[in-house]
Design goal:
It contains 8 helices and 30 strands. It is mainly β. InterPro entries: PDZ, PDZ_sf, Peptidase_aspartic_dom_sf, Retropepsin-like_bacterial.
């Protein structure tokens, strides 16, 4: 009997050791984006977006120059992005050194920072997941790195395939007219959406006319090209035995990049993924999902008719778009107006994520002070979902 107890203790000890992360760090969830800190060649911690849909590790070219990193011209993203391959010695998460064979590319990220409303220094995804299992605890905002085969494997296991270096899972959509459409969907933690239809898939099935009322807006990619998107709803979207009813979805009109991929139906983004704690296991091609405290939160939809972003010098918050038939349009707000205050707080007192979150709060009344044609103007908006 004592021998059995000892063996059980030993086995439990080995299991606990095997499931210990080699590195565990807190992360920032800025809006829908996971931000972790990395060091490049012994630098101070740099803010990198973790995106499971990112096939290349990139660093902002201004940061690369400030660090004195040697650069060589290179083609990025099939030639749609100008950049350089940089020479570096180490990439690290704190005191944990990543593999030396990770290629890092430098490119201009200013346009993404302007859209996001926050400076960041780079993007990493595939290169980290290829060498290590990754666990994302959205509820407690903890990012864990494990040796392959030694992660906890908590939750439901969903098989995936790699396409263009991005995990893809099988899903199913029921459009508003009752049509059912299966397809493969990218799993992208860097996408601030619920689910987006890729443009070829959307065109093939005329999705835009089968998603009820919708509105359009412009989105940016790493190539700095804005493309039109539509926002609508579908009866349901399901993947891996998980189902979401009557959810808002995006419809892309992209002509380049992952959203123009003809073989993939669309993208599952962080508005869905954040409702689970995730583990990515590349060798086994498995994603583990575990429902967390975010699961029952309502999906956020634009309620104001405004899209805001930073000015080119990042010193002001500007109205980037005003949607038709929205509270913002009715209030006379115009594109390129400056947002000076929101509910009495200046833009120096709130960050962009807070501004966007507030403007998506259905049923709330907000007061905006805007600068229009050189004069300040106070407007009150009754927020209401546009869909």
């Amino acid at each position: 009997m004592r021998l059995l107890v000892i063996l059980a203790f030993v086995c439990t000890s080995f299991l606990a050791v095997g499931q210990t992360p080699v590195k565990s760090i807190p992360f920032e969830l800025f809006g829908d984006h996971i931000i972790i800190q990395l060091n490049v060649d012994g630098s101070e911690p740099l803010d990198f977006i973790f995106d499971s849909g990112d096939g290349l590790t990139v660093i902002d070219q201004d940061v690369a120059e400030a660090l004195g990193l040697e650069k060589h011209d290179a083609t990025i993203n099939n030639g749609t992005v100008r950049g350089s391959l940089i020479k570096h010695n180490t990439l690290a998460i704190g005191d944990f050194l990543l593999e030396k064979n990770i290629k890092v590319y430098a490119t201009d990220l200013d346009h993404l920072e302007i859209s996001l409303g926050r400076d960041f220094d780079g993007i990493i995804g595939y290169d980290l997941m290829m060498h290590h299992a990754v666990r994302i605890d959205y509820e407690n905002k903890i990012f864990e790195v494990y040796n392959h085969g030694e992660h906890p494997k908590v939750g439901k296991a969903i098989p995936f395939k790699l396409h263009a270096g991005i995990p893809t899972v099988e899903g199913n959509v029921i459009l508003n007219n009752g049509e059912t459409h299966p397809g493969s969907f990218f799993v992208m933690t860097g996408a601030g959406t619920t689910m987006d239809f890729n443009s070829p898939y959307a065109l093939q099935y005329d999705v835009a006319h089968k998603t009820g009322d919708h509105y359009s807006y412009m989105v940016k990619s790493i190539s700095n090209k804005e493309t039109k998107h539509y926002e609508g709803r579908v009866q349901s979207f399901s993947f891996g035995g998980e189902k979401f009813d009557n959810i808002p979805v995006g419809i892309s009109e992209a002509t380049t990049g992952v959203q123009a991929d003809k073989k993939i139906a669309g993208i599952i983004g962080n508005e869905i993924l954040m409702r689970y704690n995730l583990e990515f296991d590349m060798p086994a091609k498995m994603i583990y999902i575990e429902k967390n405290g975010n699961y029952d939160k309502p999906f956020r939809i634009n309620c104001s008719g405004l899209d805001v972003q930073l000015s080119p010098d990042k010193q002001k918050v500007l109205i980037h778009q005003v949607f038709e038939n929205s509270p913002a349009e009715a209030a006379g707000i115009q594109q390129d107006d400056e947002l000076v205050k929101l509910n009495g707080m200046s833009m120096s007192e709130v960050d962009m994520a807070e501004v966007k979150e507030t403007l998506k709060t259905d049923g709330k009344t907000v007061e905006l002070v805007i600068l229009q044609d050189g004069a300040e103007k106070t407007v009150t908006l009754e927020l209401k979902q546009l869909l």
